[in-house]
Amino acid sequence: MTQKLDNLQAALGAALGDTVKSLVRDRGEITITVGADRYLAAAKTLRDHPTLKFEQLMDLCGLDYSDYRNEPCEGPRYCVVSHLLSIANNWRVRLKVFAPDDDLPAVASVTEIWSSANWFEREAFDLFGIIFEGHIDLRRILTDYGFIGHPMRKDFPTTGNVEMRYDPEKKRVIYQPVTIEPREVVPRVVREDQYGGKH
Q: What is the pTM of this model?
């Protein structure tokens, strides 16, 4: 396994060069991070370079680093992570790119490179609000069209912004402001003065 990872790391370095901002090798996997300005070129190289041949995009998802490991994050907030597979070489790589603008997170769409990215990018747009520039049909896929906000963002309220219910008078489903009172759930701890000892 170590020799295989050595070979992959060398191939990535030779093919991508300084396009790779960081390469992390951990738990038998390689994760490379590229800049948003070179993301599309790096994706094409990963697919088309004869020594890499990452023909398949297995998964693509968004991440919100605003509160990573319960600590404020230094640097960009939103990240797109792709998991790629080379059938020809039987190896995998994780490709990361951070959206440079937290207020309007956007990166290039890779649907022209891997068609399987289509619905994955729509999901990341829907849940995190990440814009995929060049995507031909970027619209919500899991929430409905009237949904407000992006529910996987760490600052999204756990109760949501609106709730829907059936209105018997109007004979249809309506949206209304959330009626659930926000509350803090703090576990109650009962301690005896001499817990486990003699009284």
A: 0.83
